[in-house]
Amino acid sequence: SPTFNPAEYLIHLVRQDALYHLPCTFTLQGKAERVQEHLAHGPPLTPQQMESLLRHIVNLPRSGKSAQNWPKLE
After folding, report:
1. Looking at the predicted structure, is the pLDDT value of residue 36 above 60?
2. What share of the chain is helix, strand, coil (3-state, %, to 5)?
3. pTM score of the predicted model
């Protein structure tokens, strides 16, 4: 589930920051360049933001047999 996947959050963030409101005629090469330029400025999240994201994910309610026992973040 994307709810429990930090990679999905990061992908969403990069897409939102680098590709939001591009015209549909924008080429794949142009999109790739935009993403590369965006990532060249540094990581999408600071260590503090990543920690906050992981804490958020760990604290989300889980139900059913697929619920996992997450390790404590310290």
Report:
1. yes
2. 60, 0, 40
3. 0.64
